[in-house]
């Protein structure tokens, strides 16, 4: 990828433009971190780029961005630009293309994100980003008050970068963050959710969470209720070893939130259905665990609902909370779950050796709700009680179910 990027820069230069690698990749390289993707900034206008890269996709053409392909790698290439005025604390009303990299760097949020490198490896760093990285400081480019007023999301981005790279927030930048925090209400819930999710799921989550819990920072009652109700510093060490969903569940457990309250939070901040389910299932499983520790049938029910991986994670979370690390005990508990899971022969009613038609034929009754109900009862007996999944035993069990029903009616 690095080589392809250099090739692309060269190609742009050969056609009379200037071009740089810019932003996150420059920062990550200076830190010695692996590079995810390389963003490119250039003096070429969007029209010129589309002419130079016939296969390019105009991903954000209004803001000057196209996705260009070079040696099988995709790059976001953006025309140098300055942002017009901001009237709503989130997006510039219009952008203006320019031909000077320094102007482009000046619109970026933090000094560590406002560096560029040219094809020959020369660093363009007009705001002292490299020095700030060395001193481990997060600092706004230009007047912080103005920059956060332009786009309040930068406040959360800043906290995320501070945690991720272990940076102190420079005092004026921090003061402006607190000052401008009420403007976060102008930002869409999705964008705020994305930032919070990256912080909970990212590196040094406890640092991010304790910054977020600062009084006056988040202008949202539910988030304050969650983050400020827990002494973050008291989250057991090893918090960052948990999976992302484990971290959410750990927060809710520490704050002692009911399932319904968690569901409301996730829904109103527009987490996807999949993400809601994932987290809420884990919470439900942790809550159900005490009843299943000695009751194999209950345990198998949980395995059927949630699967082995989730139950093992629920166990892990429970032990993490009680700070128990008895390895022998842990492996005994895990072995029990694996053994019970292996005993479950089928996971869904449709895996039964007989179907609804067989019941209708054998009992000579009309189709009706009784078919599904009977199949479900048989399914539970096979899955939970070890009834053999074969035609004769199943039919015998179905007959017994029937006789019991008739008897009670
Ligand atoms: P990551 O590794 O998380 O992607 P990144 O630095 O690449 O980090 P992006 O969100 O991908 O972050 O943005 C790319 C660059 O665009 C940033 O480095 C920064 O220079 C600039 N940028 C992004 N969002 C903003 C913003 N809201 N305000 C100002 N500049 C921004
Ligand atoms: Mg990026």
UniProtKB/TrEMBL annotation:
The Poly A polymerase head domain covers: 20-139
Q: Which residues form the tRNA nucleotidyltransferase/poly(A) polymerase RNA and SrmB- binding domain?
A: 167-218
Keyword Cytoplasm among UniProt keywords: no
According to the entry, every stretch annotated as the CCA-adding enzyme C-terminal domain falls at 243-397
The cofactors required by this protein are: Mg(2+)
Could you list this entry's UniProt keywords, alphabetically sorted. Magnesium, Metal-binding, Nucleotide-binding, Nucleotidyltransferase, RNA-binding, Transferase, tRNA processing
SUPFAM superfamilies in UniProt: Nucleotidyltransferase, Poly A polymerase C-terminal region-like
Q: Which GO terms describe its molecular function?
A: metal ion binding; nucleotide binding; nucleotidyltransferase activity; tRNA binding
Q: Which Pfam families match?
A: PolyA_pol, PolyA_pol_RNAbd, tRNA_NucTran2_2
A single BP term in Gene Ontology: tRNA processing
Recorded family membership: Belongs to the tRNA nucleotidyltransferase/poly(A) polymerase family.
Report the PANTHER family cross-referenced here.
Answer: CCA TRNA NUCLEOTIDYLTRANSFERASE 1, MITOCHONDRIAL
Q: Output this protein's name.
A: CCA tRNA nucleotidyltransferase
User: What are the top taxonomic ranks of the organism?
Assistant: Bacteria, Bacillati, Bacillota, Bacilli, Bacillales
């Amino acid at each position: 990828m690095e080589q392809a990027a250099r090739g692309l820069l060269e190609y742009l230069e050969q056609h009379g433009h200037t071009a740089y690698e810019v932003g996150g990749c420059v920062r990550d390289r200076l830190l010695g971190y692996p590079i995810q993707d390389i963003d490119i900034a250039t003096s070429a206008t969007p029209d010129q780029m589309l002419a130079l890269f016939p296969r390019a996709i105009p991903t954000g053409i209004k803001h000057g961005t196209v996705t260009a392909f070079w040696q099988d790698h995709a790059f976001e290439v953006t025309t140098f630009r300055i942002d017009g005025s901001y009237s709503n604390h989130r997006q510039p009303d219009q952008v203006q293309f320019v031909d000077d990299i320094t102007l482009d760097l000046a619109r970026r949020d933090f000094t560590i994100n406002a560096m560029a490198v040219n094809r020959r490896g020369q660093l363009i760093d007009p705001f002292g980003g490299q020095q700030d990285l060395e001193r481990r400081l997060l600092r706004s480019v230009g007047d912080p008050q103005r920059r956060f007023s332009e786009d309040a999301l930068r406040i959360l981005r800043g906290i995320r970068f501070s945690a991720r790279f272990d940076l102190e927030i420079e005092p004026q930048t921090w003061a402006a963050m607190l000052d401008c925090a009420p403007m976060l209400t102008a930002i869409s819930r999705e964008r705020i959710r994305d930032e919070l999710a990256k912080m909970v799921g990212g590196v040094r989550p406890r640092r991010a969470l304790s910054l977020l819990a600062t009084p006056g920072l988040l202008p949202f009652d539910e988030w304050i209720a969650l983050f400020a109700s827990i002494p973050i510093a008291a989250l057991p060490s090893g918090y960052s070893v948990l999976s992302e969903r484990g971290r959410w569940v750990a927060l809710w457990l520490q704050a002692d939130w009911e399932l319904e309250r968690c569901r409301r939070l996730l829904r109103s901040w527009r987490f996807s259905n999949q993400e809601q389910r994932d987290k809420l299932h884990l919470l439900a499983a942790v809550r159900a665990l005490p009843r299943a520790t000695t009751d194999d049938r209950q345990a198998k029910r949980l395995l059927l609902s949630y699967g082995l991986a989730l139950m093992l994670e629920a166990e892990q979370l429970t032990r993490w909370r009680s700070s128990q690390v008895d390895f022998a005990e842990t492996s005994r508990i895990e072995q029990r779950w694996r053994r019970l899971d292996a005993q479950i022969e089928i996971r869904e009613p449709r895996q039964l050796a007989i179907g609804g038609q067989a019941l209708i034929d054998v009992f000579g009754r009309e189709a009706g709700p009784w078919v599904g109900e009977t199949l479900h009862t048989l399914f539970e007996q096979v899955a939970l009680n070890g009834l053999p999944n074969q035609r004769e035993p199943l039919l015998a069990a179905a007959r017994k179910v029937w006789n019991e029903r008739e008897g009670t009616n």
